[in-house]
Structure formats: C-alpha cells, structure tokens
C-alpha cells in the first residue's frame, strides 16, 4: 500500500498510473490487445513476474477485469469504464512526449521486438496487392535479426522465425532507421535514395514502398524545442 501524505487527486492518480509498464499496458489494451501472450510480444523487455504483478495491480485498481473461461487459468483482460476514460489522457501523453521529449529518446530505448509489433499493427493491408504478401525485415547491426510480416486479406501476422513462405520483399536497415521511418522522422523514399534502407524483391512492391510502409498514427507529431 502507498504511504499517506496528500489528499491531492492528481497525486493519487499518479500512484495508480505513474509506472511505465502500467501506461504501456494501457496503450496495448487501447490498441486491442487482451491476452497475456500479446502483452509479452508487444513488450518483450517486461519479465513474466513483472507483467503478472502489473496486471494484478491494474485489476485491483479497477482498470481491468480478467475474464476466464471455465477451467482456464488465463483469459482476456478487458478495460473497465474507469480505464476507458483514460484513453484521451494516454493519447495526450504520447503526443506531449513526441513533441517535447523526443530529444531524450536514445538507442537504449529501442527494442526490435516492440518496434516490429508496432509495425505489424500499423501496416494497412489494403495498400498491398491481393493474396498473400510476405515481407522480411532484416534489422542490421551488432545483433542482426530477421522478422517476417505475413499479410493475407485483413490479417497481418508477425513472425520471428521463418514462416516458410516465399518472401516478396526484403527490407534491410538499422533499428534506428526503421524507428525513424515508423515515427515519420525520415521519409521512406529519401531513406531508399540515400541507401539508409535497402528494399529488394518484387518490383511493384519496391516502387510502392513509400505507400505501404507502416508508420505510426503519431507520425504527424513533430518535435519542438523546449527552449523556444
């Protein structure tokens, strides 16, 4: 239990929402994630013990309810009315952070798993040709990794192991470049032209990469100088 000391409702609210994992879990819930495994994939840096503890506390604080089918240990986490009221607040926090704290983001804040989860969620399948499309993202650097997006109809699946389908397009860049493209800091066409990202494969998809490359819903939020 928190120690007493203030009747200020702002302080009390911050005691519930002040933890970064709570805010990130709320973000995932607002984006539609409901299962424990989905939270793990979206937030690979959170340990299972911390994830379980945060979800339990969110349930105790009245932010989520855990709905389990008979005989099942795990189920869906659903937002309560109190949590749904936080949606515009979390949205405003994200916009404020991108506008006024972008310069404090550093390489240590980048995580390939989290970014690829965001990319897979942001990709608009309607911008790709009909049928199955398989995209392979190669994150180059000290710890090179590969990720696949398999798109069929409105379904977009993220794989960190080869799904076994023919790849239509390979995209190779550093994690920082992929993050910059996703956040709207770097136009895709410019990154291709200056060699910061390599796009190889189906010619039609190469030509249209700037149209289908997934970008954040906050890409229009531009950083501001706090000294202004």
TrEMBL record:
Keywords: DNA-binding, Transcription, Transcription regulation
Signal among keywords: no
Domain of life: Bacteria
Domain HTH hxlR-type: 8-105
GO BP term, example: regulation of DNA-templated transcription
UniProt-listed CDD domains: HTH_ARSR
Any GO MF annotation of the entry: DNA binding
Record has Magnesium as a keyword: no
Protein name: HxlR family transcriptional regulator
Organism: Parahalioglobus pacificus
